[in-house]
Structure formats: C-alpha cells, structure tokens
Amino acid sequence: MSRIGKKPVPLASGVKVTVQDHLVKMDGPKGKLELTVHPLITVKLDDAKKELVVTRPDDERQSKALHGLTRALLNNMVIGVSQGYKKTLEIQGVGYKAEMKGKNLVLSVGFANPITVAIPSDVQVQLEGPTKLHVSGNDKQAVGEFAAQVRKLRKPEPYKGKGIRYEGEVVKIKAGKAFAGAGAK
Questions:
Q1: What pLDDT score does 120 carry?
Q2: Are residues 89 and 131 located together in one domain of the fold?
Q3: Cβ atoms 93, 163 nearer than 8 A
Q4: How much is the pTM?
Q5: What integer pLDDT is reported at residue 32 of this predicted model?
C-alpha cells in the first residue's frame, strides 16, 4: 500500500471542502482551488476528524501511483488555500533589473531589448528593489512553473554567476581561462 496515499489529509482551520463525485473543491483564506480526481480513486470527507481520506480499489500499478499522487495534490491544495506558496528570485549582474508595467514583468538581463513576461492571473509578483522578486499564490504548480519560466530567461552562468536564480541557490563558479592557463608552464 502507498505510504503517502494511506495517510489522511488533515484540513487546516478555515478551509471548507466539498466532494462531489470526482470533483474536490476547497475554499480558504487564500482563495479557491479545485481538482478533478481520476475515476479509479475515491476521496471521502471525514467531518468528525476534519480530514480527507483517499482510497483505491485494487493493487494495480496505476492505482498505486494515482493513490499517492492524489493524496499529495490534495495536501498541496490544503496548504495553498490556508497558507499559500512563495518563491523568491534574485537577479545578479551589472545593470540587470526587473520592473512591473501593469500586469507584465519587464526584465533587463543583458540582452539588447528588455524581456516582457505576462503574469498569469493566479500568480502575484511583488518586487523588493530592482533585483529581488517574490512570486506567490495558492496553487503550488502555478507558482513553481512561473518562477521556473522567469529563471529560464537568463539562467545563472558558471563563470561570473550572472543571471536569475532562486533565493539561496548555490551556483558553482568555474575557473576562467586566465586561471587555467597560469599553472601550465
């Protein structure tokens, strides 16, 4: 049996859940989310214990995989509507900066023209100075995907470390040509 799947999903205070057939809707202080569950998996709401229980019909390979996946997605939804998710990106490099123009994020990261990125409706972006931005929202997947798309526009390069990186990300710096050739005499 799936170790993750057999754990019940505890509901945080202030989270309202409705389960109709294979549609699970959650409403909390940070917003609303919904998930359509695969037909093999059943989700039941236990009002007495304030938790969601996920079950599967058999021990087939696909059922086992969907069991753990569904439980993890439901847990992420509970955390999202109660606390929310947040990723912080740092921009490093001389002249590299970010600014907001309406519902767009404009990045100047060493290219000839600035890059304009449209911010999705389910994600919020706050700037902390020109070189730090916070991506937040209640959907873990949407927050992570948008942060990854922004980082992908200018990944940190290995010689000077310039580019967009996650907060706390360690970039290994390589030795350049001058250092590599100094020892070969």
A1: 95
A2: yes
A3: yes
A4: 0.88
A5: 94
Can you say whether the dihedral through the CA atoms of 169, 149, 99, 128 is positive or negative?
A: negative
Say how far apart CA 143 and CA 30 lie, in whole Å: 14
Name the stretches of the chain with pLDDT < 70: 1-2, 179-185
User: Residue 117: which domain range?
Assistant: 85-166
| pLDDT for position 147 | 97
CA-to-CA distance for 108 and 96, rounded, in angstroms? 5
Q: Are residues 92 and 58 in the same domain?
A: no
What separation, in Å, do the N-terminal and C-terminal C-alpha atoms of the chain show? 63
The amino acid sitting at 78 is V
d(CA 170, CA 107): 22
CATH code at position 43 = 3.90.930.12
